[in-house]
Hints:
This protein has helices at about 20-35, 55-65, 70-75, 80-100, 115-125, 170-180, 205-225, 225-240; strands spanning about 5-10, 40-45, 100-110, 145-150, 185-190. With about 240 residues, the protein is an alpha/beta fold. It has one domain (about 5-240): Flavodoxin domain (Rossmann fold), CATH 3.40.50.
Amino acid sequence: MFSLLHVDSSASLPGDSVTRRLTASFAEAWCRRHGRDGYRYRDLAADPVPLVSHAYTTLGRRVERHGVVPPARVAAMTADPAEEREWALTLPLIDELLAARTVLIGCPMYNFTVPAALKAWIDRVTFPGAYVDPATGDSRLRGTTVIVVTARGGAYGPGTPREGFDFQTPYLRAYLRNLGVAEENLHVVQAEMTRAGDVPELARFRELGDRSLADAFAAVRVLAGSVEIDRAYARALGSRP
Length: 241
């Protein structure tokens, strides 16, 4: 079955958030094509993922010393109630991510990087060995399509004065590729100069910001119905249970 995990991380309300509006546009188009049965939504700002604790890291190190341990076997390796609580918070998020054929992540730039709410989710779902197929050593996310939708109040693209300040998109690309998402299945949509309409010193860039936002809306609509994503589904269905 086609399935979509939609993750938002903006602290702003939907009407004020560019990433929420963009991810909603993708999700609406996706659901019109595939139905809502496989759609799952997680709002990391409204329902924050708890920060990992010492019990999480202790359990993670113990598991890692045993090589690749499937998530289903981790509960038996917990040593105390604190570790049991950490794993109870973690496993549903891992299962949710593994169950998705497509993952949609909305990520505004906060202080040159990703929101703390998204980082908390990343830290918790990235448990040692959770995404490694013990039989083959391959990533269980290899066939997963990931769409990252970013928004930045200024401009941080190649050739801009603040190119070196972008710790948002390069970080997410590196993280997701390291997790095992295939390069051909990783798509990044960016809207820049999103504050040009309300920050006086950026007013002269308003046309640039409007054009960037329009391009981003067009990109998410294309991705939501693209043949490329359908092919990724086909590959995933052929390689995953």
